[in-house]
Structures are given as C-alpha cells and as structure tokens.
C-alpha cells in the first residue's frame, strides 16, 4: 500500500488510493508527526511526500 502525505488548505492530508484523509495536524507542524501518525494508522505502508 502507498500513502502520500500532502499539504492542502493549511492542513496535512494522507492520500490513500483515491481517498484523501484529513489529519489533525496543521501545515506549520513538523512532517515527522504526520509520518508517525500514518505509520500507526497504516503499518507496513510506503509513505511518500508530495508538495
């Protein structure tokens, strides 16, 4: 499974397949928080970042 981390409208989002999941983290917060969040939610997934 591939997960893309993307900034959109001031928040971080996870894009899983065709679904865009809003995270509780603001765009100004560290990306490492979002990566940790994604790893807990989707263990074993490959995580990419798109700007």
From TrEMBL:
Organism domain of life: Bacteria
Protein name stated in the entry: Uncharacterized protein
């Amino acid at each position: 499974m591939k997960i893309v981390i993307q900034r959109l409208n001031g928040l971080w989002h996870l894009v899983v397949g065709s679904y865009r999941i809003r995270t509780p983290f603001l765009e100004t917060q560290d990306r490492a928080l979002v990566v940790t969040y994604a790893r807990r939610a989707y263990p074993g997934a490959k995580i990419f970042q798109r700007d």
